[in-house]
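Hello, quick one for you while I still have it in my head. I'm working through a protein record and want to make sense of it properly. Would you mind checking whether the tokens look sensible for this chain? I owe you a coffee for this, so here goes:
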Amino acid sequence: MSCTKKSLGNASLLSCAVTAIVCTSFAQPVLASGFLDDSQVSLRLRNLYYDNDFRSGHGSGGSRLTEWGQGFMLNARSGYTEGTVGFGADLTAFYGLKLDSGGKAGDPNSSRQPAILFPRETDNSSVDDFSWAYVNPKIRFSKTEIVYGAHQPRMPIVQASTGSIAPQLFEGTMITSREIDDLTIVAGMFEKSKGRASSDGISMSINAANTGRNGYRSPANVAKYGAQIPGTPQDSNKFWFFGSDYVVDPSLTLRYYYAQMDDFYSQHMIGALTSWKVGDGVLTGDFRHYDSSGHGKNRSFDGQMEGYLVSGFYANDVTLGEVDNQLTSALFSYKYGAHTFGAGYQHSEGDSDFVWPNQGDGSIAPITSDIQVNKFARAGERTWQVRYGYDFTALGVPGLNFNWIYLKGSNALSAAGPKKEQVQIVSMTYAVQESALKGLFFRLDRGALKTEFPGARDMTETRLTTEYVIPLK
């Protein structure tokens, strides 16, 4: 259930959300003590300055994307009523305020453009503010929980983006069950996705389908079918998912997940999480294999011509945008004292890019190579990565951390031949440990992308985030 600024005035937005959660609560014969005693309420304040420097220009507009905003997000989580079946409800409400946002998107006379933090006005400038609210009714039976409403999933088949002042949300039903010891099962269906810079949920799509064309076809396909595929942008309102994590022992967790977006793709993921004591440190591993194939209209030529397609490189003249990707990865991390060392490799096979729910408005590919300014999810791509982190507690500065990540991809397939790309990320974080400001958090991220891929641009992106969570109960 949602209330948005689009349908309500500012004054009544929060009132609608609070009324809904109270009504849901009192629908029970008795407002049991657990409902209130186990509740949690907090207010998150997040300030984000975003700057993306496209040194070679950006589209028809300027070479720089900048925006600065302040977000306020209220999170209220109830407990459950007493009895065999418990009932509860959660509330999430958000308000975003623009502090600065450059010029108008696509304005050739401005070097500064609005970025990714706010929705657009009709003249392509950023709105001054935006807001939304969701109420999630929930039911608990034994060790199984059912929640309907807005979710921020963190699964290896779908993951909500949380890097802006507002999070991405997925609307639908999610079931989580822990009836069997050491086994966690999740299942459900999402009907809509709400982007980070939006007040409303929309139907879901995948990379390339949101533009209705595929720009990475082979020369044979271009000659046969023309410079771009006919059709209009297509979407889906059914994303089915199932997942399981089984803890064999403290050192090994086995995983299986399945995703299906109707008329676009089906995806299987098998994996394992490991943790071993090695010398004086701990070595962890994240192993994954994805097998993605077309579903419904995406599997037919007529459906592809309608726009049910995915980006990639198609070496034959039979398919134009059918999902066909197999991606395997391994990421290791070794923590020794204040130091953390990491290394990983990812291998992509098939004609298409890796697929995930993606409306083109800021999404996360749920793979270990998705990092701030790039995803390394292209057809045929081979990606190496190395990581290093340092905890300054060892030098007497608790709360201060440094991280460096470098990724290099090669053999990314395109009509112009295999291409390379690389990313370097440097980040510093600091959380105040004492005083009345305990929990105040600062983060600086700076990412640089260099790419040979057609249509992509080199960039240097800087994000400065300040966050403070105030517990209200």
Summary: The CA atoms of residues 132 and 199 lie 5 Å apart.
